[in-house]
Amino acid sequence: MSVVLVNTQGCVLDARSLIDKGYLQCIRVRENNQKSHVNCRFKGQCFQILKSHLDAIASVAADGGNIETLQKTDKPTKKRKRKHSELNQGEIDSQAFHKKIRSVVLEGTKSLVDSARSLGYLNGTSTTDTLKEPLPSQECSLAALCEMAKELPLVDDEQQEECAQPLVAADGSTSHVDLFSRVTENRADWATVVTLMGEEYVIPPHTAFLLSDFTKIQPLVHYGRRFDLIVMDPPWENKSVKRSRRYSCLPSSQLKRLPIPLLASPNCLVVTWVTNRPSHLRFVRDELYPHWGVEVVAEWLWIKVTTSGEFVFPVDSHHKKPYEVLVLGRFRPSSDNETSSSEASEVPVEDQRLIVSVPSALHSQKPSLSEVLKPYLGAEAKCLELFARSLQPGWTSWGNEVLKFQHTSYFTLTPTDDGAGVLEDEAAEDCTDNPIVTQRLSSSAESVD
Question: Which superkingdom, per the lineage (predicted)?
Answer without folding.
Answer: Eukaryota
